[in-house]
Amino acid sequence: GASVLLLRACLALLASPIYLLSFLGVWEPFCRKVFFPFILGKICVVHDRKSKKHKQELFRNLPDFRGPSGELRLLEIGTGGGSNFQFYPPGCKVTCTDIDPNFQESLSRNMKKNQHLHYERFLVAAGEDLSQVPSGSVDAVVCTLVLCSVHSVSSTLREVLRVLRPGGAFYFLEHVAAEHSSWKYFWQQVCYPTWKLVFAGCCLTRELWKNLEEAKFSELKIQHISVALPCMPIEPHIVGYGVK
């Protein structure tokens, strides 16, 4: 514990300009509008390359969840720049949501690259409040690298279950806490406060599989995997889907 606190203090000292900007109320709006969309775009390029096989396998059975009409209505929480579009089946009707509207440039680029999809609308909404989406109106909900930064995981999962039709599926791929006895978890603890500030509320030590197990899915498939990114404490991931 003392080692963690000491190293946290050293890291905070290195990041002191950001802490000062945060104290002055400058960092958060700058982060949301400029820094986070820029840096996330860079990280996603690497992450997408490392996780491509996992995503291909994850989304392989998406067509099985088409509604009675034969259409697949999909809602993505935290769409960001739209890096998942390439994995969705042709003709899929996609509703994009994100709490941050500042991803529009990269989102537009990915929409043009993936014209096999039908884009319904873009909603500025948090995962905990999808009130603009009617209950039971979508066949699938997708959430990748988002549950780490929502204010309430349980509230977000309740909204997921609300908007899904019975028999619909929730797909996820998220970084999570490492084993508590590992060095990876030690460094996650060290980086936690500064990482959360720099990366717009991203939490390194959430045990998201527990939240998913507590949610009321009739069927739940979870796999623990590793997605190693250079010099970043987010290697442990979970991937899978739950059925309402």
UniProtKB/TrEMBL annotation:
InterPro entries associated with the record: Methyltransf_11, SAM-dependent_MTases_sf, Thiol_S-MT
Q: Which residues form the Methyltransferase type domain?
A: 75-172
Q: What domain of life does the UniProt record list for this protein's source?
A: Eukaryota
Molecular function in Gene Ontology = S-adenosylmethionine-dependent methyltransferase activity
Name the Gene3D superfamilies on file: Vaccinia Virus protein VP39
Q: What is this protein called?
A: MET7A protein
Task: Give the organism the record lists.
Answer: Gymnorhina tibicen (Australian magpie)
> Its gene?
Mettl7a
